[in-house]
Amino acid sequence: MVADSKNAGVQTPVELALQPILSLETQSDDYSPDAIARDVANGVDIEDGEPNPFVFLLTILVSFSGFLFGYDTGYVSGALVSIGTDLGSVLTSSDKEFITSATSVGALLGGVIAGTLADVLGRKWVTIGANTLFVVGAAIQTGAHTIWTMIGGRFVMGWGVGIASLIAPLYISEMAPSRFRGRLVVLNVLAITGGQVIAYAIGAGLSNLQNGWRVLVGLGIVPAIAQMIMFIYMPETPRYLVRTGQIEKARHVVRWIYSPRNRAIDEEVVTRKVKLLEIYNNEQHPEWSGYRRVKYALKQLYLVPGHFRALVVACGLQGIQQLCGFNSLMYFSATIFQVVGFNQPTAVSLIVAGTNMAFTILAFLLIDIIGRRRILLSTVWGMSAALVLNAVAFHFLPPNASQSDPWAIIILVAMMLYVAFYAAGIGNVPWQQSELFPMQVRGLGTSMATATNWGGNLIIGSTFLTMMDRITPSGTFGFYAGLCLLGEVFIYFFYPETSYLTLEDIQGVLKDGFDIKKSNQMSREAKMKHQASTHGLIGDSSA
Asked: Residue 134 burial (CB < 10 Å; 0-12/13-18/19+)?
């Protein structure tokens, strides 16, 4: 039996989203407004089928960017405790903060321009450019013999990291079918954690080798070159192609994404999907110069209420992710465990990185099932509790403690709990940021959100060791615990549910406010529709 939600008086998520934006300007000569709404609503049936398996392989290739991001985070932790005098003198706390924060400064600047570059040059070629910066930055660091050369190399690499941290989830979001989007973006985060684990493991193995840290840094060149070469042959995203008027190429990519293995897809279904993309993603003023487009996008982003709410949510989540202090643990975990009294601090850091990766896998399995909002509300409070436990343990840790001291063990356990809650929630969800913005401000909006992430990263990386010295470890981790609680409040009041909604559905959610109730309802309806289709309750759109 075919379920007809429209005849039953129930509007689909796409119809709800289309109501405020359908106008005579978006109509073709062959369709009335009602016909366009009906066809586009039916067009989401393309989302109910199984995608081309190569979409997952493409996501893995894009996630090389995430791997490089994680590898950079991981290797610096081990390198800081093994460089010794290789850069001319023993590193002070200030030297370590400069070396660490140099990447954050570069990433902040790269993140600011990455969205605009992606809108002008395309997602594909900006990814290739980011890889070039990875290679150059790693080469400079590998050959560094002074602290400032090392800082310069990390600054150059930071530009690549910042650009890649925006472009990878953006590319995946625009290529992924809606019900797989959350999990595919998490694959990029999983690659980040995988990069951290591998960097920690190699760092531990090379820790006693003279100049072993140079080998550790230089190995990062290999995946960057591999991705750069392979990405030349990868497709551009259909939404970008539609925005730049390349409709036939967009049809080809849509056909490729949604064609199940060894089966052709109905061309009418492809046409409906492309029609939906045209309504939402067409360039309004193709004759404008790049400067005028950016200026117009800025006005749209800050003056259109729905767009500004999307910016508040995206920047808020990225701020929470960084200001909770997680990357202080990633950058300085070996230093922390050295202070606590562990004999092999880099090896102990590997345990923490492994926890991060394991719970990122859990997030991959659950994010589209539980939902973004619910998974955040269920984990951020746990981060705060683990940080409080960490602060208490540091308070009672005796001076010159050894790794067998009970309080040292509690610190390790508390950090593992903190990382587990982080990886399952806030470590992943903010990178879904692309889905919040409509196409006309998506590049600029994701740039602002990514810049917020790297701005927070810079603050944490450049102040953590100083805070540890000035207000004690207990005060530092207690401060981060308080910020986590503020994050929980922000998520409860401002972050809507977006699971199972297409990128085009989401545009209607923030139009009239931070409408949590509406987003939950739309997400449930879309999920029920997918489940009904999976069980054969909704007929094929070609019937």
From this structure: buried
CA distance 539 to 459: 53
pLDDT in tens, 61-103: 888 888 988 888 778 877 887 888 888 888 888 888 888 889 8
Angle among Cα 185, 188, 191 to the nearest 5 degrees reads 155
C-alpha dist (Å) from residue 118 to 102, 110, 152, 167, 501: 24, 12, 25, 7, 24
- Spatial neighbors of 381 by CB under 8 A, at least 6 apart, are 484, 485, 488
Give Cα 115 to chain centroid, integer Å: 14
Are 384 and 489 in contact, with CB atoms under 8 Å apart? no
Nearest to 73 by CA among 439, 261, 326: 326
Tokens of 432: 């879904």
Query: Which tens digits make up the pLDDT trace of 249-263?
Result: 888 888 888 776 656
Alpha helices in 143-266 (DSSP H): 147-175, 178-206, 212-218, 221-231, 238-243, 247-258
Residues in the chain: 543
* Euclidean distance between CA atoms 264 and 49, whole angstroms: 12
> Rounded CA gap, 212 and 196, in Å?
17
Mind giving me the DSSP string for 434-497?
A: GGGS-HHHHHHHHHHHHHHHHHHHHHHHHHHHHHHHHSHHHHHHHHHHHHHHHHHHHHHHH---
| Phi then psi dihedrals of residue 469, to 5 deg | -75, -40
